[in-house]
TrEMBL record, chain A:
It comes from Notoacmeibacter marinus. The keyword Nucleotide-binding applies. One of its GO terms (molecular function) is ATP hydrolysis activity. Belongs to the ABC transporter superfamily. Keywords: ATP-binding, Nucleotide-binding, Transport. PANTHER family: ENERGY-COUPLING FACTOR TRANSPORTER ATP-BINDING PROTEIN ECFA1 (PTHR43553:SF24), HEAVY METAL TRANSPORTER (PTHR43553). Residues 3-225 form the ABC transporter domain. CDD domains: ABC_cobalt_CbiO_domain1 (cd03225). Pfam families: ABC_tran (PF00005). It comes from the Bacteria. GO terms for cellular component: ATP-binding cassette (ABC) transporter complex. This is Cobalt ABC transporter ATP-binding protein. The keyword Transport applies.
From TrEMBL, chain B:
Signal peptide: none annotated. Keywords: Membrane, Transmembrane, Transmembrane helix. The lineage of its organism: Bacteria, Pseudomonadati, Pseudomonadota, Alphaproteobacteria, Hyphomicrobiales. Belongs to the CbiQ family. CDD domains: EcfT. InterPro entries: ABC/ECF_trnsptr_transmembrane. It comes from the Bacteria. GO terms for cellular component: plasma membrane. This is Energy-coupling factor transporter transmembrane protein EcfT. It comes from Notoacmeibacter marinus.
Amino acid sequence: MKLTFTDATLVRNGKTVLHPLDLELTERRIGLIGANGSGKSTLARMAGGLIRPSEGAVTVAGYDTARDDKAVRRITGFVFQNPDSQIVYPIVEEDLAFGLKERGFAKAEHRKRIGNVLDRLGITDLRERLAHELSGGERQLVALAGVLVTEPELLILDEPTTLLDLRHSRRIANHIAALPQTVIFVTHHLDLLVDFDRVIVLDDGRIIADGDPANAIAAYKRAMI
Amino acid sequence: MINGLYRPGASPIHRLRAGTKLLLLAITCTIVFFMEGWALAVVPVITVALYATARFDAQTLYRQLRPALPFILLIAMFQVFAASWVEAVETVLRFSGLILLAALLSLTTSPAALSDAMLSAMRPFKRFGLPAEQIALAMTLAIRFIPVISQAGEDVREAQRARGGRNRFFRSAGPTIIRTLKLADELAEALEARGLGLGDAEAPRRPTSAFEPRR
């Protein structure tokens, strides 16, 4: 999986949110860190085709996010910070079927994939539960499961552990570490990135550091002082 | 507990097909709406019997009715002065019955099944431009977000109490609406990200599981 940003810029209401960006991402585990408002979530949304660049281009596995948005969405999964805003159906099993239904998969395939994902995440007992009765950590696991059932090639996670306790943060991080997909992980929890292949640091819409986790995190800490 | 929200179960009413329940509800409500006089006395009897068949207790029944009670009583009082006490009683029985029967449908039918049933019912009208999928999805989302928005309202009221403010409905309405609108924005983005409208034009991409080891 290869992502490219070619002179990708985002301007909103006359303000430059992301300055022209040239990037090539081929690593399997990529971390995005930065202060609030630094542009890291915007960059992640651009990579997932949810935001199109005002200028320049972004490609995911060769698909242009502006021209081939459906193809990009088909191969990309996105987990947001707040699971409540991405769980569509009240019952867990029905919610997990949403993405499959929208992609036209047969019901037999729904059952197989849902069973497989729930089993892998260790939440089979939640299958028939009502989403609003679950804890925050359980809801985030359900949100992750809802994305994984579609078997995306690229998984983008925008601060999925911010609202969670340490145990659930670690649990989510362990599941993510075991996934075969390319992962872009936006987070403030720096310790979750230590085993990543590459970490990019953003500040005020610009990349200020890019490299292995130790060096990038050190650069981030220096910039924040 | 939120009123009118699905509660999984195995009663005969739970097991009925969603489309059948929807049709029966439409027919029953139409009959109840046009019933008059002492015949309306049968409505609470049937309603209680249906709730018992679905294995719901009296408290559950009352909870479905409670939010609407002030409005029903207000209308009934108006009827006492404008018409007669008989018509007031009729109004109470009619509206209570309609609300309880509709609540029974959502208590015993999963939103996805209801959505599928509505989609089937609306499918013939798609050729006239009716956005059937969008209507069914909107209905599902409305049900799903009742507890989420209710919780948002409770959070706002709790924050106001913590800061020494008194619990006033109108004071909490503004922040709750703002939170709800923000949630709506996030939801729209999430629906897009989860594949809304991708359609089945393309065949399933690949049959292998994402959990298989990388080669």
